[in-house]
Design a protein that fits this description.
DUF2855; six-stranded antiparallel beta barrel; 32% strand; 13% helix; alpha+beta; three-stranded antiparallel sheet; 178 residues
């Protein structure tokens, strides 16, 4: 898994029905994880008509900026004026963590990118709700707070093993939790 070549979905911003699944061999190896950060990889997501809304309004609401094109994106897809990535609601596995209360093997539910490329996010714990975190990464602070709130599922919680097994209930939950 550590040397698996990650892939991302990239869309043409003007014609978002035109997409490519782009392998990123130059994304490896991953950089060390900064403090207060999680390295997440999407594991279960929901694709709905709403995903087209993220593309259609991506420029106006800055949704194209939530998951920027990785630095290792090859030409021609590395042109962020023309190409971008959209998101979906779903679960991501915590591959690595510098947050002591959220170990690797945990999962989060929230606004996740399409593809297998891990995403590093700076986070802070919710001050009052123990199973929620907020994304503090600078490139995401312009979107509504709902897009920066994630629910945390530790491996030891009842839901943790279900998410890891990607049960049918987890798939429905990915689509309907919002």
């Amino acid at each position: 898994m550590a040397d698996e070549i990650p892939t991302v979905q990239i869309l043409d911003k003007e014609n978002y029905f035109s997409q490519a699944l782009v392998p990123l061999p130059n994304a490896l190896p991953y950089a060390p994880l900064p403090p207060s950060s999680l390295r997440l990889r999407t594991s279960v997501l929901s694709l709905t008509v709403n995903n087209f809304t993220y593309a259609a309004l991506g420029t106006v609401l800055k949704w194209w900026d939530v998951h920027p094109l990785p630095p290792s994106t090859p030409a021609p897809y590395n042109d962020s004026a023309k190409y971008g990535r959209i998101s979906a609601w779903g679960y991501a596995e915590v591959l690595d963590s510098t947050v002591p209360s959220i170990p690797a093997g945990s999962h989060v539910w929230g606004y996740v990118p399409l593809g297998t490329l891990p995403e590093d996010l700076s986070v802070k714990l919710h001050p009052e709700i123990s199973d929620q975190i907020f994304v503090t990464s600078a490139h995401r602070q312009h979107v509504m707070p709902i897009y920066n709130r994630y629910f945390v599922y530790l491996p030891s919680t009842p839901r943790g093993p279900e998410i890891a097994q990607k049960t049918a209930g987890v798939a429905y939950d990915a689509a309907l939790r919002v």
